[in-house]
Amino acid sequence: MKSLTERGVGGVAEINGTWDRRFDGVASTLAASLDAGTDVGASVAVFLHGEPVVDIWGGFVDEAHSAPWVEDTLTNVWSTTKTMTFLCALMLADRGELDFYAPVFTYWPEFAAGGKERVEVRHLMSHTAGLPGWSEPLQSEELADWEKCTSMLAAQEPWWEPGTASGYHAVTQGYLIGEVVRRITGTTIGQWFASEVAGPLGADFSIGLPATEDPRVSVVIPPPPSDLEALNPSELVVRAMSNPPLDAALPANAWWRRAEIPAANGHGNARSVAMIQSIIAGRGEARGVRMLSAEGCEAIFDQQSNGRDLILGAPYRFGMGYGLSTEMMPIGPRACFWGGYGGSLIVIDQDTELTVCYAMNRMEGGLQGDIRGADIVLAAVVGLAEG
What we know:
- By secondary structure, the chain is an alpha+beta fold.
- 29% of the residues lie in helices and 17% in strands.
């Protein structure tokens, strides 16, 4: 392993942390992105066979370069948070407390309203429940009101026939899965995640960030405003994404950080995300800690949908929560992934036991990520192959 503070190849970006020499390309890729200004501050982690082989960071916590991004800097990783929510559900299923093929009302009786008696837990996991947004008006600050958000979803009718297609549940998915977790465990998903996942692993990731941790937060830098009309979104997309608007400036608010929004407001860094998700790469175990049985991981690859997503407008294949390999995302038959609004990304491969995460503060536009995370993953794969 290298332990260093080195200059980026051909540039001025300072990369801090450690990495195995096989993965020089990962460090160079991050340095180049910082040099080019496509990143302001970022962290990258690669775990192999459950152990860290890359743990690096660089850049600054804001556009003013007021302070450097350091080892324990945290940031909002948006929908990369969903992988933590999936893991909680997988663990409960593995323990026999949750059946993905059971109707949701088995755990949450009020959910049967609005003709949703046949909606199964697996539909919540795979964005196929027909509940990508709220039918009644909701203000942004009300995302912190768990009871309001979940009771509204329980009462409303699906926007399409559940199970027939995926339509990205960008924010609602966390409340839907999270309420099922709450009904089973008697505690909130953020609290359950902290005690059952982050705590045992020693992982620095929170769904609902304590105020004491605010000084470590690098608030995400919103992307340039986009002309929604120019994108010609469908009525369904507008309906899902405008109530409330998915505003990249929300993480600057203390109420957002305190709330439990299990699809969108997790705070961590590449190290903590990769540390947790390497459990999946290791078929339920990493660094001597077993969170799931090997059989319990198999549900991830139980395909739930495959086709053009009604919200994202591109082809996606969903297993039990995670995205699976497609021509657009050719990550391997035993690999899964997800990413966050603006660019964060986690890719997990069971065949190679490789886990790669990229987490940053400067957001690009769109919900489907960008080239920065993909370049990091490619560099890690090349390093593994050449090593």
